[in-house]
Amino acid sequence: MGGSRTCEDGLHSFQHIYGARQQLPCSVIIDGGSGYCKYGWSNFDRPSGRFPTFLAYGNIENPMYNSLMDFFTTIYERLAAKPSLQPVVISTPICHYDETEVATAARRNLRHVTHKVLFSMGVKAICAVDQAVLALIAAKQTSGIVVNIGFQLTSVVPIRHGKIMRNAGVEVIGQGALQLTAHLCELMQQNGISFDNITIVKALKERLCYVAQDYDAELSRNTEATCILNNQGEFKLSHERFMACEIMFQPYLGGLRTMSLQQAVALCIEHCVQITDDVDIPWFNTIVLAGGSSSLPGLGERLKKELRKMLPHQISQNLTVISPTNGAELAWSGAKLLSNVSCFEETWCIKKKEFIKHGQKILDAKACS
C-alpha cells in the first residue's frame, strides 16, 4: 500500500477526528441496516432521507448486499449527486469480520459492491466502516463498549483505540427493535387496544414507551398516558408502556430464549478485564448506546443499575453509560465526523488504483474495525 496509513498503526488516531476537522469537499453517507437505510451529505447535520430496507427488499438478515447497487443508484438520484466528484462512506454490520459463512459471504459481496461502485458507477472513492466504530466516533470516544440495538439483533462490541477487540469477544443478542415492537403489539391486543397496522404500534413505542427502573414497583403505579397520531386518533397505554421494553432485561417475558442485555454487557466487560493491562484499565468503562431503541427513556440508567448488581464494585463504580438523543442516527453522525477529517481520503478511502493493485487486502487494511 505504499505510504498509506491504517487505523491500526496509531499514527492517525481518532483524536484527529476531533482536532483536524476542516472544510473539505463533502461526502455522500449511506448508513444501511436490516431495518432502514439513511443517506445524505456530510455537510448536513442530519440525513437527507431514509427508506425501509426490510419492506423494500424483504431480506432482513442481510439486505444491504443483494440490492446495494440499487440503493446506490436510488440514493445518488435523490441527492442529485455526481459520483466522480465526492467519496462515499458506507456503514457495515459487525458480522463482517468473524469466520461464519454469513460473514464470509458478506465480505465477498462487499468486495463485489466496492468494485461495482468504483468502476461501474465511477465513484471517486469508497470508505466502509463498522457501525459500532461510527457510533463511538459520534459519542466522541476513542475506546469503550458499544451496545448497538439493531432492527433484529443487538450487538455488544468492545472497541479499544478505535479497533474492535475481537479477541475479547463480541456478544450478540437475538432481539432488537423488531421484537420490542412485536411485544408491544401483543400486549395491546391482550388488553383490547385496536390498531390498523404495525406502523402505528412502532410510533406508539417511540412516543410512549420507556424502561422501568424497578419493574415490580412500576406494576403498582398509575402509568397511563395518551398519544394522538395523525389520521389514526387517540391511543391510551398504561403498563404496556414499560412492559414492552422489559424483555431487554427479562427476555422470557416475551417468550425469547436469549441473553438479557445486562448479561451480554457484563460478559463483554469480564472478557475485557482479562486482556487489559494496568496502564489502560479504564478503556472499557464507557458504554455507548446506539440504534433507534437506545433512545428509550430510562434505558441507560437501568442498564447501569443492573450492571452494578452483577459486576465487582471496583469495576462497576466507574462505569459510564452514554445514552444518545437520537440513537437511530448515531452511526450516520459518526460517518459525518469521520468524513470531515483532513486525512480522510488518504487514510480510510479506497480508490480504483488501490483496489486494482491490492483487492481484498486493501479492504481489510483500510477497514476501521
TrEMBL record:
Family that this chain belongs to: Belongs to the actin family.
Annotated organism of origin: Adiantum capillus-veneris (Maidenhair fern)
Protein's UniProt name: Actin-related protein 8
SMART domains named in the record: ACTIN
Lineage: Eukaryota, Viridiplantae, Streptophyta, Embryophyta, Tracheophyta
SUPFAM superfamilies the UniProt entry points to: Actin-like ATPase domain
Pfam families noted in UniProt: Actin
Signal peptide per UniProt: none
